[in-house]
Amino acid sequence: MGIVIVLYLALIALMLVSMWKIFTKAGKPGWAILIPIYNTIIMLEIAGKPWWWLLLMMFVPFANIIMAIWMLNLIVLGFGKTSGFTVGCLFLPIIFIPILGLGSAKYTGPVGEVKS
């Protein structure tokens, strides 16, 4: 049982470090990943979407699933990866999120920028 707990904590640490690096590569504070609602707002900024998407994600049934996938896709595209990489992030996040955060991907800017 102790080995399982250690492995679980190691996976959590890997994901936290990876997301921290994704935030810092995008020019945002890495510690923001530790604050529950604020980290979603920062992820929306990285994706180039307005903050009020958070309200839709929280209060509109089933919109949260669609918008979270959309936001993840925009973040992945912002790092120069393809939509296929987004599918990898959805189904094998323990592999693809560290590749994005700890790999050589560079943030090119928000892809989903709203034009005013």
Q: Strand pairing plus helix content: what structural class?
A: mainly alpha
Cα(first) to Cα(last) distance is: 55 Å
How confident overall, as mean pLDDT? 92
Strand content: under 5%
Total DSSP E strands: 0
Helix content: 55-70%
Q: Spell the H/E element sequence.
A: HHHHHH
Nearest-angstrom radius of gyration? Answer: 14 Å
The biggest beta sheet reads: none
Shape: globular
- Tally the helices: 6
What is the domain total for the residues? 1
Low-confidence stretches: none
Question: What does the model show?
Answer:
By secondary structure, the chain is an all-alpha fold. It has one domain. 67% of the residues lie in helices and 0% in strands. The protein has six helices and no strands. The model has no long low-confidence stretch (mean pLDDT 92).
Secondary structure layout:
Layout: H1 2-25, H2 36-47, H3 53-59, H4 63-78, H5 83-91, H6 93-102
Helix pairs in contact: 1-6, 2-4, 3-4, 4-5, 5-6
Key features of this structure:
single chain; 116 residues; mainly alpha
Short description:
The protein is built from six helices and no strands. By secondary structure, it is mainly α.
